[in-house]
Structures are given as structure tokens and as C-alpha cells.
Structure to design on (279 residues):
């Protein structure tokens, strides 16, 4: 029986630690504050923004919400970012992606001050991570590192395979695993014989966005399997990139979807907001 890596429980524990640190900061007269910007009516984005607001409230971080209409221009959004960059009350800025098509996401990401880049998407933050001296940690990969710790498996010296090479998950994930002295392979849609590559992994992280794609024949016996995917199955039910029913009997530890990686991502955003005040 595989160990189920319960993201909700780990997130609750980390949030209690964050709340205690927020209390200490408040006692010193510092009041952590996150500005959350949502443009348009994307229903999934609304849910994420709401969860971020709730997360802030849970740990005592103040959140400011900016809801802009779908037709907001790039210039208008950039000028809001400038205003938040200059606002001493605001420690962290998060602009929820995706943005409407008239706005360049890259331009917006690059306009956020690296000092307030709690999502860790700015090229400066990526560069700091790449050179081994990150200030903020990328939220989803940092949450995954906590879950791997929970598995009891030491990363150092292990063979790690990350499937997916996005800027948000795959690439920074590989950096964190390498930083923890894992031997890391990044696989993607052009990888030949993905099954054989995945089967070498002591730690397998899957972030491809394909429902139940990874089955037992991709997984080494006893491996730690982290499922980042947030997909819908044929019945419209939320599921991951890993076929849990087939993989769970083979692996040593596995994250469920929902309740695995998801709850950790926002928790790490809260941790970055705290870090923005502490440093
Ligand atoms: P993305 O930007 O779409 O990237 C997907 C990656 O998967 C690409 O690198 C792609 O390869 C690779 N890929 C696609 N099909 C593949 C295949 N058949 N074999 C091997 N590699 C394949 O996705 P993302 O933003 O990283 O997100 C991935 C998944 O994680 C999605 O389901 C997303 O919803 C979820 N997610 C969850 C959280 C969370 O907090 N739980 C956070 C972020 C994302 P190429 O580069 O070659 O195209």
C-alpha cells in the first residue's frame, strides 16, 4: 500500500506555522499585505482568487483585491501594477493568469517589482532560482518539495524525472530537485520512450495536463509519484495526470487529486508574502 501524501494536512500544518510568524511580525508593527489582481470573468480564475483571499485571511495576511473588467487595456493594467509597486503597504503582488488576449502576460509579469514577485514568475526571480540564491520560491514546485519531504524519501542522490517543461511547474521543479542534490531528467512531448524514462525515476513528478496519462507501466516499484495535473475525466470529474487506481498499488507514495499538490500551491504563496516582509 502506497503512502498517500495528504496535501490538505501538510498545507494546514504549514499555514499554522505561517500564522504564528505573521503574529510575530504584527507584534513588531509589520502588517503583511498581498494585492491580488483579477482581470475579466474567467470562472476558474475567480475560484483561485477567492481561495487566495481565504488563505490570506486564515493566516492573518491582509489582502487587497482589484477586480478589473474583461476589456481592461494593457496600459491600464500596467499602471495599476506601477501603483502597487510604489505602495509601501503592499508587500506582494499577484496578477491572476491567464489574462485577456489584448494584454501581454510577459509584459505584466516583467513589470511587477522583483521585490514583490510572490508568484516567482519574473525573469529576475527565475534567474535567482537558476543561480542557486532564490529569494522567493516558485509556489507549486516549493509545495511539491514539502510533499516529497512528507514521503520520508531523501532527494539527494535519487533519480528524479519531471514530465513537463513549463516555466511555472516543470523547469523550476527541476531546479529545486537539483538544488536538493537529485539527479534530474526533464521529459516532455518530444521525449522518446517516455515510459522507459519515467521507469528510471525514484521520484516522478508529472505536470502535463493530460487526464490519467501515467499508468502503472510508467512507474518503478516503490517510487514517489507527484501528480500536478488538474484535469477532467470523461465524466467531467476533477482528476490528475496520473491514473491513481493503476499506479497506487505499484508506487511507494503518491499525491491524490484533489487534495495533493493543489492545497500546497496557495500555502507557498502565503509563505512568499511572509518572506517579502521578513527580508
Ligand atoms: P503546460 O504549460 O501546458 O505544459 C505542459 C507540458 O507537458 C509541456 O512541457 C508539454 O511538452 C508536456 N507534455 C504535454 N503532453 C505530453 C505528453 N504526452 N508526454 C510528455 N510530455 C507532455 O502545463 P503546466 O502549466 O505546467 O500545467 C500542467 C498541469 O498541471 C495542468 O493540468 C495544470 O492544470 C496543472 N497545474 C496544477 C497546479 C496546482 O497548483 N495543482 C499548478 C499549475 C499547474 P512540450 O513542452 O514539448 O509541449
Amino acid at each position: 500500500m502506497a503512502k498517500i501524501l495528504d496535501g490538505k494536512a501538510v498545507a494546514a500544518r504549514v499555514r499554522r506555522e505561517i500564522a504564528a510568524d505573521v503574529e510575530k511580525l504584527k507584534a513588531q508593527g509589520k502588517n503583511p499585505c498581498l494585492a491580488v489582481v483579477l482581470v475579466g470573468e474567467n470562472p476558474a480564475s475567480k475560484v483561485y482568487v477567492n481561495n487566495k483571499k481565504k488563505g490570506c485571511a486564515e493566516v492573518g495576511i491582509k489582502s487587497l483585491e482589484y477586480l478589473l473588467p474583461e476589456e481592461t487595456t494593457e496600459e491600464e493594467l500596467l499602471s495599476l501594477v506601477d501603483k502597487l509597486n510604489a505602495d509601501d503597504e503592499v508587500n506582494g503582488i499577484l496578477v491572476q493568469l491567464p489574462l485577456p488576449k489584448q494584454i501581454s502576460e510577459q509584459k505584466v509579469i516583467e513589470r511587477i517589482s522583483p521585490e514583490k514577485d510572490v508568484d516567482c514568475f519574473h525573469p529576475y526571480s527565475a534567474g535567482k532560482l537558476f543561480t542557486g540564491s532564490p529569494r522567493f520560491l516558485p509556489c507549486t514546485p516549493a509545495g511539491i518539495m514539502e510533499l516529497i519531504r512528507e514521503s520520508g524519501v531523501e532527494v539527494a542522490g535519487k533519480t528524479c524525472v519531471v514530465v513537463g517543461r513549463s516555466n511555472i511547474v516543470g523547469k523550476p521543479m527541476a531546479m529545486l530537485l537539483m538544488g536538493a542534490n537529485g539527479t534530474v531528467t526533464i521529459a516532455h512531448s518530444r521525449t522518446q520512450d517516455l515510459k522507459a524514462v519515467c521507469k528510471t525515476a525514484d521520484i516522478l513528478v508529472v505536470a502535463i495536463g493530460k487526464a490519467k496519462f501515467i499508468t502503472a507501466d510508467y512507474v518503478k516499484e516503490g517510487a514517489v509519484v507527484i501528480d500536478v495535473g488538474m484535469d477532467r475525466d470523461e465524466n467531467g470529474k476533477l482528476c490528475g495526470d496520473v491514473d491513481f487506481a493503476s499506479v497506487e498499488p505499484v508506487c511507494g507514495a503518491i499525491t491524490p487529486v484533489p487534495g495533493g499538490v493543489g492545497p500546497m500551491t496557495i500555502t507557498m504563496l502565503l509563505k512568499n508574502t511572509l518572506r517579502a516582509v521578513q527580508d
Summary: The domain at 29-114 is CATH 3.40.50.10860 (Rossmann fold). The longest strand covers residues 33-39. The chain has a mean pLDDT of 97.
